[in-house]
Amino acid sequence: MASTPIYKIVFFNQGQVYEIYARQVYQSDLWGFLEVEEFVFGERSQMIVDPSEEKLKNEFSSVKRSFIPLHSVVRIDEVEKEGSCKIIEAKGGAGNVTPFPYPGIAPKPKSDR
Asked: What's the domain range around 24?
């Protein structure tokens, strides 16, 4: 019997890059979202504790399912086993590049009669 695959999901969240692991990842019925379920956090027997991993563990401890906007996802990989979850500060290269805003619905121009 094959083991359940584990996925590494890397995405942007409020100026930070989150790297989490989960067993279930799929397209959501909510348009524009990815659903992530069954989060996996490595059990560490070491004395060294990574604060970003502990923060993620606390943040997602009571979460059953998370909806991540598709435009925030950087990468999804199927991996052999989970690694340590991380939060990394997102650094802009030159600091002058920002994402293009998503266009809203423009009002119809008034016709002159």
From this structure: 6-89
